[in-house]
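Hey Z.,

So I finally got round to the tryptophanyl-5'AMP thing we talked about over coffee. Here's the setup:
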Amino acid sequence: MSRIFSGIQPTGELHLGNYLGALRNWVSLQHKHECIYCVVDLHAITALHNPKQLEKNTLEVTAGLIASGLDPEKNIIFNQSTVSAHAELAWVFNCVSRLGWLNRMTQFKEKAGENSERASAGLYVYPNLMAADILLYKATHVPVGDDQKQHLELARDIAQKFNIDYKTELFPLPEPLIFGEATRVMSLRSGLKKMSKSDPSENSRINMTDGSDEIKKKIKKATSDSGLLPGRPEELVGRPEASNLLGIFAALSDKTLESVCQEFEGKQFSVFKSALVDIAIAVLAPIGDEMARLLKNHEYLKSVLRDGSNRANDIALPILEDVYEAVGFLKT
Ligand code: TYM
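And the result:
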């Protein structure tokens, strides 16, 4: 049996990278699989944050998931802190995971920056919590963007070590699902930097709530290069900005990169960018409008999360019980 799990942090605004690398794929998976999608608020406090803003972001991300096309009845959508088993299993995994494994995590190094002594202990053990998120549901497949690949490998290592240490076959080894033509969307300012919520430049990303004018302005301003567009993907080597923009176009229009290259072969960026503006507005503007509509009704959004939380708990609790039994906690 396959079970899908994935998560997204309620920190800052959702952007095109989240949409193309994750949300869009989540939507396509819902038709054939049992899916659990989590707004990971426990992860969001690993960096300094504003509590009021966290509440607001949690609702906004929930609205983003639904507006992107996830059906809250078919899928389980909930916020992580309401299912306490996540934190409980994370503790067990803190004791399974190895310091050597955590020390290799590139995202910790990037996020902690120069002064890692001042990073929270939570940020360091973040990948253990992520493994707990997935394995708490015995999820078999995890749709994510390319940047989460290393964390997924760690989750597999933890599952395997747990099974060996406790002589059990409790956990499946979860597989990453990284697909589509834009698994790593780069900044619009530099094709060498990932598009991210934490980039100080607003022009580096397209937010899912951006209106048509903003989308147009940001794409027109996006860094390009001085060449004409190539006819084949192989010719994109060494042209990170062209590669990024063509990949975004391909993903938004549901075409292959190859066919997009053929379509725009020999064209100037100005021509291509106008087409990119059109497709980006056609796909994103209705989602942004729907988010705005949903955000007027907090009670509805909370009821979706509440229902998701009940359903998630029903799956998680028996699995946590099995874990507790395997590690030898006495039941009284
Ligand atoms: P987060 O919140 O940073 O991102 C959510 C999803 O969006 C994808 N993504 C991107 N994809 C392509 N290009 C980009 N520029 C880009 N930026 C973000 C991410 O790969 C992710 O799929 N640790 C996770 C959240 C998490 C999780 C989990 C994921 C917590 N527990 C369990 C899967 C399973 C994170 O910080 O994602």
